[in-house]
Amino acid sequence: MTTSDYKKAFTQLDNKPVKKAKYIKFNSPKKRSCGISLRRCRNCGRAKGHINKYGLHVCRQCFRDMALDLGFKKFG
Description:
The protein has about 80 residues and is mostly helical.
């Protein structure tokens, strides 16, 4: 189960607090302290293709969209 759809069941479980607590305990995403999943794109949340340089913290796909606005020039 991905982080995007783990909260979808909350609307059904709002009336059952015990089951909701158990669901959150076993289905919430793991807290990370290191690794590739710790750094996510600020724009879209993607974990792969992350550009950390210059403090950008965006994925390569979002960087292509924002590069001209950030002041980067296309080379070649």
